[in-house]
């Protein structure tokens, strides 16, 4: 006997699905509400079950000509085909809908093995965390418009679990790469149609540092000065990124770190004890280098001898110059 009305299935993500698209794709952790509706039946009776007769793991609510099965939060135990059966008098009708799950919660993560330096190989990795099903995952890594590597994860899954997948590529950057954008793009194909996919990507703008330059350590006016002179010891380095400069005075009893301003240390009146070895350490993320110089301070000679006194005699004769005035 034919059923007097029509039975329709739908979900909170795809309301009232019609054949042949009886698939609901949901992200793990979301809520899914499956809806079963019937027409031309005044007092229908609804029932839900999985196709493999496993527990529903959800809540059923029926009212009038509609019944819902709520799965919240949806997890691996809910990845089944669900059957909705409606009875109207002595007649029955049954329809099936399948719940397929995926996990793709975050953008890919770009990591580098070290600082980008012109001519030095570096390994870049692109990680996609907590993905499911990973056998539908595709990752590609691009430098600007150039694809460095592309990978499809086609290995068979032996169990349902969240996995972190990644690819690595080693390349040698040059200063011409500065300003280019490194792109890590991940696609997760979902549903029966392989062309349907969800996509996430992360980007990172490249800055390639030049080779490390040695610091320049200089002294003004020269490395050999006289006691009492003003001396300026300077350490400069044109490296990028930011370089840290540390000036020290070397000694057998221990080095003294000098309070320099922008790599310059000033001695207003140099003394004999200021003589010695001065060291400059220049360091940044690329590496560190040392430079040193020796400052020689010459003292003034001591003069031992007699003091000389001069006596001055001034004779004035008023009779000759009557208008002279004397001031002391």
From TrEMBL:
<dbReference type="InterPro" id="IPR013098">
    <property type="entry name" value="Ig_I-set"/>
</dbReference>
<keyword id="KW-0945">Host-virus interaction</keyword>
<keyword id="KW-0677">Repeat</keyword>
<protein>
    <recommendedName>
        <fullName>Ig-like domain-containing protein</fullName>
    </recommendedName>
</protein>
<dbReference type="InterPro" id="IPR036179">
    <property type="entry name" value="Ig-like_dom_sf"/>
</dbReference>
<keyword id="KW-0325">Glycoprotein</keyword>
<dbReference type="InterPro" id="IPR003598">
    <property type="entry name" value="Ig_sub2"/>
</dbReference>
<dbReference type="InterPro" id="IPR003987">
    <property type="entry name" value="ICAM_VCAM_N"/>
</dbReference>
<keyword id="KW-1133">Transmembrane helix</keyword>
<dbReference type="InterPro" id="IPR013783">
    <property type="entry name" value="Ig-like_fold"/>
</dbReference>
<keyword id="KW-1003">Cell membrane</keyword>
<dbReference type="GO" id="GO:0005886">
    <property type="term" value="C:plasma membrane"/>
</dbReference>
<keyword id="KW-1015">Disulfide bond</keyword>
<dbReference type="GO" id="GO:0098609">
    <property type="term" value="P:cell-cell adhesion"/>
</dbReference>
<dbReference type="Pfam" id="PF13927">
    <property type="entry name" value="Ig_3"/>
</dbReference>
<dbReference type="InterPro" id="IPR003989">
    <property type="entry name" value="VCAM-1"/>
</dbReference>
<feature type="domain" description="Ig-like">
    <location>
        <begin position="215"/>
        <end position="296"/>
    </location>
</feature>
<dbReference type="InterPro" id="IPR007110">
    <property type="entry name" value="Ig-like_dom"/>
</dbReference>
<feature type="domain" description="Ig-like">
    <location>
        <begin position="19"/>
        <end position="100"/>
    </location>
</feature>
<dbReference type="InterPro" id="IPR008424">
    <property type="entry name" value="Ig_C2-set"/>
</dbReference>
<dbReference type="GO" id="GO:0005178">
    <property type="term" value="F:integrin binding"/>
</dbReference>
<dbReference type="Pfam" id="PF05790">
    <property type="entry name" value="C2-set"/>
</dbReference>
<keyword id="KW-0812">Transmembrane</keyword>
<dbReference type="InterPro" id="IPR047012">
    <property type="entry name" value="ICAM_VCAM"/>
</dbReference>
<dbReference type="InterPro" id="IPR003599">
    <property type="entry name" value="Ig_sub"/>
</dbReference>
<keyword id="KW-0393">Immunoglobulin domain</keyword>
<keyword id="KW-0732">Signal</keyword>
<keyword id="KW-0472">Membrane</keyword>
<keyword id="KW-0130">Cell adhesion</keyword>
<dbReference type="Pfam" id="PF07679">
    <property type="entry name" value="I-set"/>
</dbReference>
